[in-house]
Amino acid sequence: MLLVKVRKIVFMPLHSTSPPVQHGIRANLTQILHQLLQVFLVGLTIGMTRIVVPGLAKTEFGLGEQQFFLLTTFVVTFGAVKAVMNLFAGRFSDRFGRKRVLVAGWMAALPIPLLLLYAPNWSWVVAATALLGVNQGLCWSMTLNSKLDMTHLSQKGLVNGINEFSGYAAVALAGVVTAWLVEVYGARQGLALFGTIVILSGLILAILMIKETRPWALAHASAVSASSMPPPSLGQAFLYASWQNRNLLALNQAGLVEKFTDALVWIILPVWFVAQNLTLVQASSIIGVYALLWGASQLLTGPASDRFGRKPLIVGGMWLCGVGVLLLVLTHTVWLWTLEAGLIGFGMAMLYPTLGAAVADVSPPMQRGTLLGVYRFWRDFGYAVGALCMGLLAQWAQGLSVTFWLVGVAMLLSGAWVALAFNKD
In the chain, is it the N or the C terminus that has fewer CB atoms within a 10 Å radius of its CB? Predict the structure, then answer.
């Protein structure tokens, strides 16, 4: 039965059925809840790597601080692959439909548990994170695009907020669950068990429960007065969003730089906290505060951006993150580090859903998937750029503290760019 469903998804014409559509969260609540479950499972998939994979680098493959640049390769690979997938996912979803791209993303993730379970060397882990980048780029993008399709144009901030809350709450939860599974079954077996359950659940539910939402996007387009000019090519859209449009340029650079902060939390903070004589449990708890504040606060900051405008939350979030990162390296107590992690998490909650909503604001409905894909390309390419810069800088300086200054200053300057250049709310 499952194979029959897959065949229908692949070969069914995109517009073979055009049921009457109605926009709004209440009108599409059941399908939106299914989409929220999808992004929750996507968050679990990436969350399982946040603590355990850096631990594997040291315990299984002998990578310590002296090979820090080599350790960063899995985040560089993840960011580069996810960025490219984001770019093409947006275009493909506009041409072929959201559901097909979502299912393809889950299918790409199927080998990940086996690669982690049987990895004889670090390159297998890097290969697994490359597939993780494919999964995240295709699946996370589609869950958001589909919800934006089904809801009112005035609900973009709220939609981004609930989507990112569901995903990043799962990221935080996955860290706790996988840590427990690792204690019980071992690192490789715990990851393989958790990953297999999550990925198969995501794929099966995507096939059986998710509807194609492209008709809702077309209904949005018909309700907006626009010229009859044909949509631009992917290359034209990329050039327009990356250079020609002042607002999109400001938003894209902010998306790229804010991923420096998450890359710092992912690969620097666990190692740095342990170097400050914290236990792994203490370090994980502090990082968990960051993830929980980021996830939960987006339920407030997303709707707030609909009401009060995008720029104040983006700029304020960038600056709050920058200050919090700098304070981490200037203070020396657990409770202050916990407070600062919370400040960074709240700053991320201010800027993260708001950036996506701002891009959607300036994107015509027929091109929204493509232009959001360009934004997500630059945003997640920030993982690769940030991890590469931090790895090289840490190797050159023979220490990790300098990476905090890089990230903190970059966030402050990026926020200033948005404050000066972004003029459309």
Answer: N
pLDDT digits (tens, 9 = 90+) for 340-381: 999 999 999 999 989 988 998 888 766 777 788 899 899 999
Instruction: Report how far apart, in Å, the C-alpha atoms of 399 and of each of 51, 67, 78, 321, 402 are.
Output: 21, 12, 24, 22, 7
- pTM (two decimals): 0.82
Query: Rounded to the nearest 5 degrees, what angle is found at the Cα of 154, between the Cα atoms of 151 and 158?
Result: 70
CA distance 269 to 253: 24
Q: What is the pLDDT of residues 208-262, one digit of tens each?
A: 999 998 888 777 666 655 445 566 787 888 999 899 999 999 999 999 999 999 9
Cα(349)–Cα(300) distance, rounded to whole angstroms?
A: 9
Burial classification of residue 170, based on how many CB atoms lie within 10 Å of its CB (0-12 exposed, 13-18 middle, 19 or more buried): buried
Q: Cβ(149)–Cβ(223) under 8 Å?
A: no
Distances in Å between the alpha carbon of 410 and those of 116, 353, 406, 416, 425? 34, 20, 6, 10, 24
* Torsion from C-alpha of 130, 136, 139, 144, nearest 10 degrees: -150
Instruction: Using alpha carbons, select from 168, 160, 144, 166 the residue that is nearest to residue 351.
Output: 160
**Alpha carbons 343 and 294: distance in angstroms, whole number:** 9
